[in-house]
Amino acid sequence: MDKYHPGYFGKVGMRHFHYTQNKHHCPTLNVDKLWSLVPAADRHATEQAPSGAVPVIDLTRHNVTKLLGNGNLPKIPFIVKTRLISRKAELKVIRAGGKVELIA
Fold first, then answer.
1. pTM of the full predicted structure?
2. How far apart are CA 16 and CA 9, in angstroms?
């Protein structure tokens, strides 16, 4: 019956023997959820006096490995520490007045 749908049967792609999921485990977080990791009191204090202390958001403490760029950020300065970050997320953090520090 391969006459009407050529290429339907057969093997496609490459094989990966003994695929372990631990090597590919990469919990992610989008930019729009980034400020939910900051306590409400710290966020309110930063909004009132943006020239004061800058909050440091360490994503590795929250078991997040990679920061992705979906969503928007408020124009408040902050520092993000993460292992991996997408190009789009890095641009959004810098445009919002923040800084990105990569952790090995």
1. 0.79
2. 20
pLDDT digits (tens, 9 = 90+) for 34-86: 999 999 988 888 888 767 788 999 999 999 999 999 999 999 899 999 999 99
Distance in angstroms (rounded) separating the CA atoms of residues 90 and 100: 7
Structure token pair of residue 12: 């496609």
β-bridge pairing 79-82 and 99-102: parallel
Q: What sign does the CA torsion over 53, 92, 87, 63 have? A: positive
User: Tokens 């520090």 sit at which residue?
Assistant: 101
Q: What backbone torsions phi and psi does residue 84 show, to the nearest 5 degrees? A: -130, 150
Counting every residue, how long is the chain?
104
Structure tokens at 103: 């952790």
The Cα–Cα gap between 35 and 98 comes to 12
